Structures are given as structure tokens and as C-alpha cells.
Amino acid sequence: MNLKDVRSKLERIKGEKDHIIKTISNNELEIRRRTRELTQYEEARDIVRVVAQITQTQLEYKISELASLPISSIFSQPYKFLAEFVLKRNKVETNLLVEDLDGNRFSPLNANGGGLVDVISFGLRLTMWTIKKPRPRPIIILDEPFRFLSRDLQQKAGELLKELSKRFEIQFIIVSHDTALIECADKVFKIEKIKGRSEVSCL
After folding, report:
1. Which residues contact 123 (CB under 8 A, 6 or more apart)?
2. Considering the chain, what is the average pLDDT of its residues?
């Protein structure tokens, strides 16, 4: 190999070295940039997590308090409704529970009869209406909302609807066959099917 070839090879190696050094330098800059971004993302994630926890705590309280109101108004045993937000499989899920005076917690689906579920379902619908921003029109339509509630408690349910209607300035439009519930209504419309036609009359 002559001197000219040696110089050419050295120049090529030097060029490759300079390229490698430049690549390393660029990679180090990219690593530093990515590290800064990661730190910012982690800080933002922590802030979001704290805000989410505060929001969930406030939401848990509001849902639990409002949904417990119908229960305490209708049932003699003072159950308390609880909505708990828990993290499962990297997702937030909600546990809906009922707590008795002794602190025992259970699913409302495991309660005797379906009346408690009906009342909780109504309470949750009202709660969702109150916390929506902007708040929807003050009308909630209910179809046999307390169908599984025992007959001796239907009157209390009707009185509760009247009280909530006044308190929240909301109109409940209810479809029902229950006499005790109907008697609590401000206006009653009777729908009958006569000769294949639906006829509406005001009672």
C-alpha cells in the first residue's frame, strides 16, 4: 500500500470518526430533550392525578349525600349510599354500596326485594341531573320509578317527589299505575285505549 492510499484511508477513518462523534452528540442532545419531556410529563401526570383524586373525593361525597337522601326519606332503617372510585387494571371503576348503622357494606343488588334498588336508581338520576354543567332542562321523566317498592312506602315516595320538585325546581313526569303515587301528583292525566285509540283525560 503506497502513501497515497494510506492517507486516503486515514481521511476516510477520520470522516467516519467525526460522523460518529456528531451522531453521539446529537443522540445526547436528544436524550436530554426526551428526559426533560419525560420529567414534564411525569409532573403533569402527578398534577392530573392529584386533581383527579380531589375531584373524585368531592364527587364521591356529592353522589353519596344526594343519593342517600331518598333512602333516608323513604326507609325507616337509615341506610347510607356510598359511591367509591377505585383503580382497577389502570382504570377507574365505581363501587356502588349501601352501608347500615353497624357499618356493614353490601351491594344494593343483594338487598331483600328491589325497592332499595329503585330508590337508589332514582337518587342517582337526580344526582346526575344536579351535577351536570350546564344543567339540563328541569324535567325528569320516570316510568314506574318505584315498581318494586312495597305499597306501604309508596306514599312516602310520592311525598319525597313533591318535596324534591320544590327544592330543586324540577318537574317530574311519571308514568305509574300506583294509586298512592298518583295521589301525590299536582296534575294527573289518564290514558285509556278505547276502540283501538288512545284517549287522554285530565283528572
Report:
1. 66, 67, 68, 69, 70, 71, 81
2. 85
CA distance 188 to 135: 27
59 touches 66 (CB < 8 A): no
Distance CA 169, CA 148 (A): 27
In 3D space, the residue among 110, 113, 112 whose CA is nearest the CA of residue 97 turns out to be 110
Q: What is the pTM of this model?
A: 0.68
Q: What is the pLDDT of residues 43-87, one digit of tens each?
A: 887 787 777 677 777 777 778 888 888 888 898 877 888 888 777
**Region 188-195 average pLDDT:** 88
Q: Which residue has the higher pLDDT, 91 or 136?
A: 136
Give the number of residues written for the chain.
Answer: 203
The three grid cell numbers given for residue 119, joined into one nine-digit string: 330508590
Per DSSP, 169 falls in state T
Which residue is it, cell 309508596? 154
| CA-closest candidate to residue 84, choices 59, 67, 66 | 59
